[in-house]
Each structure stands twice: as structure tokens, then as C-alpha cells.
Amino acid sequence: MQKQNNQQVFFLRYLSLIPVIAVIAISIAFSIWAVFNYFSPDLLFHPMP
Q1: Distance from CA of residue 41 to its chain's centroid?
Q2: Do residues 45 and 37 touch, judged by C-beta distance below 8 A?
Q3: Angstrom distance (rounded) from CA 2 to CA 15
Q4: Please, which residues have CB within 8 angstroms of residue 45's CB and are 6 or more apart in sequence?
Q5: Is-above-0.70 flag for pTM?
Q6: Residue 18 counted as domain residue
Q7: What pLDDT, in 10s, does the model give residues 4-48?
Q8: How far apart are CA 14 and CA 21, in angstroms?
Q9: Distances in Å between the alpha carbon of 29 and those of 20, 35, 37, 44?
Q10: How many domains is the chain built from?
Q11: Which domain does 30 fall in, by range?
Q12: Which residues, including other chains, have CB under 8 Å from residue 37's CB and lie 6 or more apart?
């Protein structure tokens, strides 16, 4: 019984980490995208004159 309760505690800790991991991953992806567009801008956001 103790082992099943222990697994539930670890599972709830894992579920509470998912939003944190998602926010970090999205922040990293957006940062890479922003830096890439700064050095090599695409025509959608920076049209040529």
C-alpha cells in the first residue's frame, strides 16, 4: 500500500513539472526564433522596399 501511495506522489510531482517544462521550452523556442529573425529577417515581418 505504501508503494502505491508513493507512486501517486511521484506522479503528481511529475504532472506539476509539465507546465514548468512547457513554459521553459516555449521560451527557448521563441528566443531562438527571435535571434534567427534578427540576423536573417524573413519578408513577412521585414518587407523589402
Answers
A1: 23
A2: yes
A3: 20
A4: 37
A5: no
A6: yes
A7: 788 888 888 888 888 889 999 999 999 999 998 888 877 776 666
A8: 10
A9: 14, 10, 12, 19
A10: 1
A11: 1-39
A12: 45
